[in-house]
Design a protein that fits this description.
Order of helices and strands: EHEHEHEHEHEHEEEEHEH
Strand content: 25-35%
CATH superfamily of the largest domain: NAD(P)-binding Rossmann-like Domain
Number of strands: 11
Largest sheet: 6 strands, parallel
Number of domains: 2
CATH architecture of the largest domain: 3-Layer(aba) Sandwich
Radius of gyration: 19 Å
Structural class: alpha/beta
CATH topology of the largest domain: Rossmann fold
Number of helices: 8
Shape: elongated
Strand order of the largest sheet: 2-1-3-4-5-11
Length: 252
């Protein structure tokens, strides 16, 4: 497999190393200093592009790949309001696209467990409030994390007492759906608390609390390697396929 790496920060370097370990070739590396080289001519020699950049650049990067006929795997978060546009373009062009908010296998197991737990609580008509807390390193600028949003959507899709989410993110300027006072959130709002500290790769906790007990689901990533490995495995899966895919497809 010949891969293009779009975004050559810490994740990009981890991806490069894993590609090498798994016998693949890094045919193209795109970063801020050569962003203009992300075009059809340079993508010609690649089978798949793996994109981890910024919320401001992800849409254009992925669109360029799809328009060039290059399969693309993306893990950039904080921009996915426009994801359906690119999924539609992918289908229109007969291309291949894989998107996930988190490529860690354990996190995707957490997604599934969280959905099942919310559905079980709904069936039992049990009275639990739900809150989510996510902690990431200080270099992560968007909030809440894509993983936290996916967890919130898993609750909202299965528990009728929660209809929307709001984000409590003190000190994070670009927080979406911000609330300044989580205690003032309406009962139907699920509060996501975002914390940025140190070099934490990512910790997510979903808390279900009643008057009598607390039930928590928690996942902690030890290092970025698990994310990079998942992205490379997704790229291997995507090669030769057409359509729009995600981790649910990979884990079947």
């Amino acid at each position: 497999m010949k891969a293009a790496i779009i975004g050559y920060g810490k994740m990009g370097r981890e991806i490069e190393q894993i590609l090498k370990e798994r016998g693949h070739e890094t045919a193209l590396i795109i970063d801020t200093d050569n962003a203009a080289e992300l075009d059809a001519a340079h993508l010609t020699e690649t089978d798949v592009a793996i994109e981890f950049t910024t919320p401001q650049t992800a849409y254009d990067n992925i669109r360029t790949c799809l328009e060039a006929g290059t399969a693309v795997v993306s893990g950039t978060t904080g921009w996915t309001g426009r994801l359906p546009e690119l999924q539609a373009l992918c289908r229109e062009r007969g291309g291949a696209m894989f998107y996930a908010s988190n490529y860690c296998l354990g996190v995707n197991l957490l997604f599934r467990l969280n959905r099942e737990l919310a559905a079980m609580i709904e069936r039992l008509h049990a009275t639990y409030d739900v809150r989510i807390k996510e902690i990431h390193h200080t270099q992560k600028k968007d909030a809440p994390s894509g993983t936290a949003i996916t967890l919130a959507e898993g609750v909202i899709g299965n528990l009728t007492t929660k209809r929307t989410w709001v984000n409590y993110a003190p000190g994070i300027e670009c927080a979406a759906n911000r609330t300044e006072d989580p205690a003032a959130a309406a009962p139907e709002q699920l509060v996501i608390s975002s914390v940025r500290e140190g070099t934490v790769p990512g910790t997510h906790t979903v808390s279900y609390e009643s008057e009598d007990d607390v039930l928590e689901l928690r996942h902690t990533i030890k290092n970025r390697r698990t994310l990079a490995l998942g992205a490379v495995v997704a790229a291997e899966f995507l090669c030769g396929r057409k359509g729009v895919f995600g981790m649910e497809d990979l884990m079947q």
